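Sequence in, structure out. Go.
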Amino acid sequence: MNTVKYNQNQRRSNRRYERDAIPPETMDLIYEAIRNTPTSYNGQQYSVIDVTDQALKEELYKLTDQKQIKTCNHFMVFCADFHKIKVLAEAKDLEMPEFTHTVDGVIVGTVDATLAMMSALTMAEACGIGTCCIGYARTVAPEAVSRLLHLPQDTYVVCGLALGIPREQPDLKPKQPCSLLIHSNHYREDDLAPELLEYDEVIKQYNATRSGTKTDNDWASHIIDYYRHAMSYRMLNALRRRGFDVKS
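Output:
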């Protein structure tokens, strides 16, 4: 098993996998890590769909065009979930407040599901399993994905995680320096632009020289292009159809 230091500081996304299955005992460790995730109020406002059926993975691949979904051994879909607490409230004749109609409700569910995904990712990487987070599972076609996974109302997809025996060891992507990420006592008030421009150039150089597909992308233009494309997702409408009619 990898050390915590190596696991956290050398992590990279794996998009190519061997055909070998992940051992059941390894998956049990991942499930237990998910189960022991810290959550808001211990409310455990999340559920995970572990997709191993190849036909279903193929259907999800058709929607997302993310090849690693169909080639991975397990594709785990992390969902915010208020369905379970509503079932229990009804069984105990408790009045359920409209928490799902608040921004905080959406945030709570998203945070819990994200923490659960990071628990799974951390354990998987520690066991030598390759991982790749796929946010497009959330945005590509929310209703179609929900139907494929038989998601009940009051749940929504937060993110997907592909798991498999890694076939490659991609180059480690440069991340922002700690000076841009970690602020001491208050947010920095000096000019961030010089360090951001330097990081932007580092990413451009990485993209031009990395193994595999090379591009001339810098960081800022690439991310802003994503934001521009994401403006068309209309996720608020998708959330409302899932039972999250945000009003406050």
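Check: Residues 103-126 form the longest helix (24 residues). The chain has a mean pLDDT of 96.
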